[in-house]
Amino acid sequence: MSPPHNSPTGQGDTSIDCLLFDLDGTLIDTTDLIFQSYQHALGTLLGIQATAEDLYLGYGRPLPEAFAAILEWRKVQRPPAEQAVLIEKLVAAYRAFNVAHHDELAREFPGTGAVLDELQRRGYPLGLVTSKSRGIAERGLRLARLAEYFDTLVFMEDSARHKPHPEPIWTALERLGFQEQPQRALYVGDSIHDLRAGRAAGVRTAGALWGPFPPESLIAEGPDLLLSSLADLLQLCPGPSAPAPAPR
């Protein structure tokens, strides 16, 4: 665990009293599943061999936005109506492969459940904020037996705008009662989209270095913390400094 950077919220010495987490690449190891799902969709419909750059462009974003970004980077441009249909087909192909192979390729990062269990025991409100759709995200949580640890779950369907926009994090903060004190919350994520969303939401941010993004890309975002493992939080978070405010 690296020492804190200057906090982008201007609250570098504020105690952490609420913990929010991304899902894929942070709590659940789905990198192979996601990459193979992109490979299947892009290969089947466009004859394109997916690369790590495709993964980085799409990772942590809702699938329609992810494929739109990939197509733009790949310079695949069609008339707007045709482009929209193509994106729908890519999303459908991705989801079909992902669902068929989910339980085979997705797995909990070792020790995740034990860390969340201890943080819950210490009294922290815990929230999940993911760009994944509810059904497949809940499947992953059940597979890894993690759902029981969270006080709130924010899925793609729960906000009109998605990471890197802060709205999903704002949703979690409101549900947990921290909407007026976002600087008391820490958001842990493995992607640049997570860190940008957290900074925009006014929370403190922690880059998860065990995810698929190159460490230098997370460092460049200037998070408050860099974590080498989820267990680093047990050293950082001995317990909330004050009771959680009542949710609205």
Brief summary of the model shown:
It contains ten helices and eight strands. With 248 residues, it is an alpha/beta fold. The strands form two sheets. Strands 5-4-1-6-7-8 form a six-stranded parallel beta sheet, with helices on both faces.
What is the helix/strand order? EEHHHHEHEHEHEHEHEH
* Multimeric organization: single chain
Strand order of the largest sheet: 5-4-1-6-7-8
Distance between the termini: 34 Å
What would you call the structural class?
alpha/beta
Largest sheet: 6 strands, parallel
Number of helices: 10
Total number of domains: 2
CATH uppermost class of the largest domain: Alpha Beta
The total strand number stands at: 8
Q: Roughly what is the average pLDDT, rounded to an integer?
A: 92
3D structure, described in words:
The protein is α/β, with parallel strands linked by helices and 248 residues long. It folds into 2 domains: 18-29 and 107-236, Rossmann fold; 31-105, DNA polymerase, domain 1. Helices cover 45% and strands 11% of the residues. The protein has helices at residues 31-46, 52-58, 63-74, 80-105, 112-121, 134-144, 167-176, 192-201, 215-219, 232-236, and strands at residues 18-21, 28-29, 107-108, 126-129, 152-154, 185-189, 204-208, 225-227. The strands form 2 sheets. The chain has a 6-stranded parallel β-sheet with strand order 5-4-1-6-7-8, with helices on both faces. Helix 1 packs antiparallel against helix 4 (80-105). It is globular, with a radius of gyration of 18 Å. The two termini are 34 Å apart. The model is unreliable at 1-13 (pLDDT under 50).
